[in-house]
């Protein structure tokens, strides 16, 4: 993915709010979502964020303002999910990005026809932007894997497979929800370490996992692996992802087949998918492997990946308790980390997922795993931040949290910034834990 005119930091839009220094959605970003006016029975349709507005791709397609190869892509993105657009592949995504970039620039002749297609973001609601056929969650932060492993195996925290194989498990697609959709605290079977029989009860150890979601664009055929050289052309873009986790259900159920009901009650994603092309200016080298680490096997290695396989995305977790909400206090940041610390890249996730011939399809979602950074204050789950529940966090208003309580809202944010490039952001991924159903 090379830099082109759409990344030029000097570009300005005729949508004035897109030119502010702190907007997540300048003209260099142009992420995709599926939306409608809040509370309406309008059809869901694709939209592109520009400043504090959404460009309605449904009405934009009918104006005829976009022509050529981009017009076909626009038509595909105007439906009630982005799957058809994703399936068209990287040249189509790029053609539409270029056409929208040109049409939304200051002085563009298309302004007259596109201005009536803007809807204020304040006035819209979102849905999951693709029909997600399958959801797979990885474990690509070696810092997260080590922090978690240390809780169970202090002397030997990292499993021997970790540096050889991108660890993952198949998750649940039906319970992936969009930011703002609240969910009930799960009920499940738990057993305290020193107890006899397990009990079924509301989870007492509700946790978060700050991750990125990777949306697959074009498919690979069953039986045909995706090579490292091809892997990134299959990736449409990235969202924020909160892989809510019940830490008391997990340890009792997870052996030998892995997490099950401790994870699949809800997974929240942000509405906006930031395309891989928009992320091109922020590519960086992954962390160098330690001298005594094994080199990746050939199917997981490429010179491009060694040089630019990571992305510099700063990520924040914020919490707002019910008391903070009542007193009008904003959500407080508890963690800042960065995607650049991941041990395995998203290209390696795709290459590994398909090495056996497994077919990925448009709209499939891959989670990166919890993106903890190298120091403990960059740990992206409460289980790490509180050392397994031993050291509660103190919030700015003096309240403490070991695990999430009913009514707590968690907000994930992410942005990219670099000298010589625009600042772009991901919007937010928000969810509130509601009380468990009565037993
Ligand atoms: Mn996870």
Can you describe this structure?
With 439 residues, this protein is an alpha+beta fold. It has two domains: 123 residues, SH3 type barrels (Roll), CATH 2.30.30; 300 residues, Fumarylacetoacetate hydrolase, domain 2, CATH 3.90.850.10. Helix content is 19%, strand content 25%. It has twelve helices and 26 strands. The strands form seven sheets. Strands 6, 7, 8, 13, 14, 16, 17 and 22 form an eight-stranded mixed beta sheet that branches. A five-stranded antiparallel beta sheet has the order 4-3-2-1-5. A hairpin with a 2-residue loop joins strand 2 and strand 3. Helix 1 runs antiparallel to helix 2 and helix 2 packs across helix 4. The longest helix is centred in the first third of the chain and has 15 residues. The radius of gyration is 22 Å and the shape is globular. The model has no long low-confidence stretch (mean pLDDT 97). The structure holds manganese (II) ion.
Number of beta strands: 26
Heteromolecules bound: manganese (II) ion
Relevant CATH superfamily of the largest domain: Fumarylacetoacetase-like, C-terminal domain
Give a quick account of the main beta sheet: strands, pairing sense, barrel closure: 8 strands, mixed
| Class from helix and strand fractions | alpha+beta
The CATH architecture category of the largest domain equals Alpha-Beta Complex
As a whole number of angstroms, the C-alpha radius of gyration is 22 Å
């Amino acid at each position: 993915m090379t830099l082109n005119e759409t990344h030029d930091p000097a570009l300005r839009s005729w949508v004035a709010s897109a030119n502010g220094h702190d907007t997540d959605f300048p003209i260099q970003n142009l992420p995709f979502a599926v939306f409608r006016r809040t509370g309406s029975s309008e059809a869901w349709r694709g939209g592109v964020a520009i400043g504090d507005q959404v460009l309605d791709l449904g009405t934009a397609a009918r104006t005829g303002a976009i022509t050529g190869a981009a017009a076909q892509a626009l038509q595909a993105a105007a439906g009630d999910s982005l799957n058809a657009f994703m399936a068209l592949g990287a040249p189509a995504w790029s053609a539409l990005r270029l056409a929208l970039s040109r049409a939304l620039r200051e002085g563009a002749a298309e302004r007259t026809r596109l201005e009536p297609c803007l809807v204020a973001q304040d006035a819209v609601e979102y849905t999951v932007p693709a029909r997600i056929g399958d959801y797979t969650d990885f474990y690509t932060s070696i810092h997260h894997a080590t922090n978690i492993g240390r809780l169970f195996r202090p002397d030997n925290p990292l499993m021997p497979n970790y540096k050889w194989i991108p660890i993952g498990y198949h998750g649940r697609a039906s319970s992936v929800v969009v930011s703002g959709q609240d969910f009930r605290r799960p009920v499940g079977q738990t057993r305290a370490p020193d107890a006899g029989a397990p009990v079924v009860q509301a989870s007492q150890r509700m946790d978060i996992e700050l991750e990125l979601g990777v949306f697959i664009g074009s498919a690979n055929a069953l039986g045909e692996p995706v090579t490292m050289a091809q892997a990134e052309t299959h990736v449409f873009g990235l969202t924020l992802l909160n892989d809510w986790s019940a830490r008391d259900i997990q340890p009792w159920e997870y052996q030998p087949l892995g997490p099950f009901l401790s994870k699949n009650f809800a997974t929240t994603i942000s509405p906006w998918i930031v395309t891989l092309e928009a992320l091109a200016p922020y590519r960086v080298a992954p962390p160098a492997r330690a001298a005594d680490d094994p080199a990746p096997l050939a199917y997981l290695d490429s010179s491009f990946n060694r040089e630019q396989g990571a992305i510099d995305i700063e990520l924040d977790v914020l919490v707002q308790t019910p008391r903070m909400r009542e007193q009008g206090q904003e959500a407080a940041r508890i963690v800042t980390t960065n995607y650049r610390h991941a041990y395995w890249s998203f290209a390696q996730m795709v290459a590994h997922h398909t090495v056996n011939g497994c077919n990925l399809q448009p709209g499939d979602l891959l989670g990166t795993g919890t993106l903890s950074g190298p120091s403990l204050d960059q740990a992206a789950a409460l289980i790490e931040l509180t050392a397994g529940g031993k050291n509660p966090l103190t919030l700015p208003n003096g309240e403490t949290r070991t695990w999430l309580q009913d009514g707590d809202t968690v907000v994930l944010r992410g942005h990219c910034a670099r000298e010589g490039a625009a600042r772009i952001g991901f919007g937010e991924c928000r969810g509130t834990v509601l009380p468990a159903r009565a037993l």
